[in-house]
């Protein structure tokens, strides 16, 4: 039987999109939330490629949690969680032990670096620090004939390559950009005409696409594939992801490092422990690792915690893909909504609007709107 007088506090590990979505719902309903994160700032990861390319300042996608979470029932601890002890209901951090009543694990993911020999010699794009480092490296590529290799034509790889190409043109810098992808199709969910639209954008920006081309090794200034050798002054890895679950008991994760959850997003075998975002697995049911699914999961977890505490039936999670977009060049985008392909300038504005309303805090909304407006006017 549910104890209605049980302490209404949730501890959230990880302050990304999934964690933040849950926090907003819980705070609005009067719950206390204790966020444990490695940074006092929230980073809007879907725009990280624009920071890396030098197109956006860091203030447009990195926001102090306290600037938009000002409730008295919100607490932030900046610390590194080293272990989650479910038996003792506590977190072991590099600073202190933190007890929890309800727990949401939303630690996110990072670029997989265990599938290619020497992959740790390439730059990756998981954090704002890595994005700034990449921007500095791009600024340093002033010599003629510089070569940039981007490994993996994922959402990030495609948008990053096109953004870098446009930024280099604006700065009147010249560099060769190679985009290498291990499969024939770049974006499987797009119909063939959508695939061709992406190819045309890459061609307009002079980006060399090598597909299928599987990279097998990365060195300081080169990459090796199954068929050849590519020189590279800057190698960037944007392949698949690995969940950040090293702090968990191995019995709770599958072979891919994903947390096993039930249909209500409770960690298997647990009652008051939940998981959301890139780290979860529903078994045979595939879940796209997207910003929108992370946000949906965070909200579902929050609702289910509230329902559980009040003795109501829990709501099962059903993945819903509202639409998918990829930003192209020249303020264009391509998308897929309700099985319909859309593309053009207006799609770029729709894509921007979706991101605009997922930025936390109205002050941050308008700061980003000003930056985008100046950028739009500057291009026209």
TrEMBL record:
Residues 9-298 form the FAD/NAD(P)-binding domain. Signal peptide: none annotated. InterPro entries: FAD/NAD-bd_sf, FAD/NAD-binding_dom, NADH-Q_oxidoreductase. Keywords: FAD, Flavoprotein, Oxidoreductase. One of its GO terms (biological process) is aerobic electron transport chain. Its cofactor is FAD. One of its GO terms (molecular function) is NAD(P)H dehydrogenase (quinone) activity. The keyword Oxidoreductase applies. Pfam families: Pyr_redox_2. Belongs to the NADH dehydrogenase family. This is NADH dehydrogenase. It comes from Candidatus Falkowbacteria bacterium GW2011_GWA2_39_24.
